Fold this sequence. Notes:
The chain is α/β, with parallel strands linked by helices and 446 residues long. It has helices spanning 36-48, 77-85, 104-117, 132-137, 145-164, 222-231, 242-258, 280-289, 294-297, 299-306, 321-326, 336-344, 349-354, 368-380, 394-411, 424-428, and strands at 7-11, 53-56, 92-98, 122-127, 171-174, 179-181, 191-192, 197-198, 213-217, 234-237, 267-276, 363-366, 386-391.
Amino acid sequence: MAKKEIILGMALTDGYGTLKNAWRAPHVNSGNYANIEANIRYAQSAERGRFAFLFTPDFPAVRGDVEHSPVSNILDPMIALTAISQATSHIGFVATGSTTFQEPFNHARQFKALDVLSHGRAGWNAVTTSDPAVAANYGKPVVGRAERYKRALESIQVVEALWGSWKKDAWIKNQQAGRFIDQSKLQPINLYGEHVGSRGPLAIPPSEQGQPVIFTSGGTSPHLLSIAGRHASGFIAEVWTIEEARAQRDLVRRAAQDAGRDPNDIKYFAGLITTVAPSVREGLDRRIEHQGEMLEAHLPHLSGMLGIPLHRSQLDQPLTPEQSSAAHASPGDPRSGIAFKLAREGWTIRDILAHGSIDYHPVTVGPPGVHADHMQEWFKAGAVDGFWLLPDIYEDGVDTFVDEVVPLLVQRRIYPDEYAGSTLRENLGVPEQYGPDPRISRGTQL
Length: 446
Ligand SMILES: Cc1cc2nc3c(=O)[nH]c(=O)nc-3n(C[C@H](O)[C@H](O)[C@H](O)COP(=O)(O)O)c2cc1C
């Protein structure tokens, strides 16, 4: 049996990093948004650290304050990852693709093509996309959850059928005999549902891992769990505490079991934002320097999380004794407990914010041990199979993580000292699959 070790992925977002002003850092090229060479360097660093995959979230729309901060999206996931695949050899590529706005034939074709030309390193993060700005770009309204997930389920089934429609031994390519393909092994799928369908077949041979690995991401609505349980081998999550992660991971694993699969066949990844620095103080200062006005703007939110009024004039002081005794972790936000703990430790309000207490994912700040401890604790508690990292600034944040944190994880025997193989499936430790998974009941078949 394979050793139980942490699996790492890394988000590729905009070419700069998670900190709001990463794009303005003096050591960062402000043109990285359109600079594939920079993304290739970051991918190569992650590969040096034996990351199993790169993950491209995708919200193809102009959102947020682009007058002052980057368009937080990669130009085009499939095209960027195709370029990166040609400059790397082991790291996998999990690209987000919307089942709501794409036709399954497009997904089947593009992802399998990436899988073939990366020699078995592609994955598809199948999401239903509920963002109105994205919907508007496709000239469509946001539809209800039930309809989105019905279409998603149909799409994934069509995609898997298309992937399997070129049978593994269909390709003869015998020059002497003049036979290219055994056409009896490249047959239509004729699969049509309420929302999508395809005749097929798809004229793409198997890759070294057979076909791309399916991921999904989101919360734990029964709709999403049904998709994850039946079809996903990876689950990209957004969780703040060990308890929350463990409960969510248990649900995801149970969904796989209910679908007739082995729960170990789906790997659960929590997000983690990292600032690696020689000391916590230096890490906090780096985060303060590159967050711009954002930290101060979060003051009212922190006030709500702690249930006490906070004033701008107090930013560089810890809570007063009166505030400390009145403060509590508001139950409405899972991040409140982290903010409350930091407040009790006596950090100034600015530092509580700089710790990332109001961020999209948990944040680890400081020397390598801080990051390794966080990952080890979550992993040993059965809360995750791994993490998808969001470095604070790609330009130096990936290298420092790989050079300083990865060796610690290896030393602690919770991280591989070499890639398990050269395909994404091997590096995730998920089984071979070609075409639809025969273990899945056909109850909700198209
Ligand atoms: C960690 C995480 C990453 C996600 N990445 C994407 C993404 O890249 N693109 C996208 O359209 N939706 C993304 N989503 C959104 C979900 O796919 C889903 O649309 C959203 O959670 C609402 O779906 P629901 O109807 O299941 O609640 C992400 C969600 C989470 C939690």
